[in-house]
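Hello Y.,

Per our agreement to keep a running log of every chain we model this quarter, I'm adding this entry. I've kept the format consistent with earlier entries: sequence first, then predicted structure.
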Amino acid sequence: MKNKKLIKRKDAVAGVIEALLLVALVAIIISTIQLVYVPQMMEQRESDHMDDTENQFSYLKSIIDLQSMVKEDIPISSPITLGSRELPYFVTARAFGQLDIIDVDRTDSKIIIIPPLPLLPPSGNIPLTSIKYEAHNSYFVDQIYALEGGCVIVKQPDGETVKIEPAITVENETKINIIYNIPIITGVPGKNSTSGYKNCFVRTNYSGNRSSPYSGDISPGLGFIRIYTDYLDAWNASLNKLLKEAVDNGYVNVTITQDLGGIDVVKIEPWGKTIHLEFTVTDIGAQIGPGIVIT
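Predicted structure for the entry above:
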């Protein structure tokens, strides 16, 4: 019998190694995309959603201002996007949001005028109602958008600011005239809150004007205005901006202080001139619904 000569070949081994290297390369690429680029894309997506929310609240404010001026019961629906979806094929998380109507029955925020203006209750109390959106983001910083007292406020962990000023007009004459058109929101039971990531709509309508304008004077040393709100820094900065000339000349002082019960408030008080106030209060009905609200 002849001895057969065995020949060793390494082609098969080389092919297996090539396949393993290719799989490892693909895994590295996918891991890099998942760990580096996907979070960046999701952060940008959530940032864009926050920009959209700001635009939607600007639109909602403009609708309420229009309804306050026209004074006709014409319901209008304004869209609000609650969150954003995850990316397909990758491990990502959705962003969710909560939308609430904080109306006269739910709010602790208020404006107190001492001495009370004629026709106001003895407490001098005007409620500060709001429509509030709170974002629960997974990649971008969490933010709150609030339409309170006619102004749009944005709040995040490192601070807060008024993005759109309230309908306040200031005139520096023999008196400091402050003219304020303020909407008071009344919700509908069961339609004051929603959450999720899809679109919803806020329907608003003009409900009427109260016995207003409420008007009167506050003389130096004889009275003040206090604002109770969850957004003290935003209101303080906004009012100092609106009353800048009067503040700079020492006619009016605007500051964050405490009331007799130790609660932080924004306080406006006349110094060198009398403040003349005119408050026009407009009642606005509001409700939240998914999809298009049909009336």
